[in-house]
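Per reviewer request, we include the raw input and output of the structure prediction for the construct analysed in the revised manuscript.
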Amino acid sequence: MLPTPQLADRDIIEQKAFIIQAIQAHLSGAATIDALAGWALKAFHSLYSDDQDVIEQPEEADDDVDTAEEQDADETVIESVLDLLMFADTPEFALSPAQLADAITDLQR
């Protein structure tokens, strides 16, 4: 089963975990590639507000917050992986299990 695609109210670590969970659901046969692509589209759109072109992040309570540079890198990886997944149901953009595993590795960095 796929996790909720509503990522905007999650921190970066949770966003990555939800995306990994969605990919693993597909790899295990619990979700079709069409379902994964649809989920990724909803997840991608959930990250953007109507007024801005930036990923919305909730306020962080911890003093141990990533630097702005690390957060930008994390956001770029999230956007890139979601972009790959959104079109994975189209034959010319189909992803192999190895490519999906690579996406998981990218998210775990």
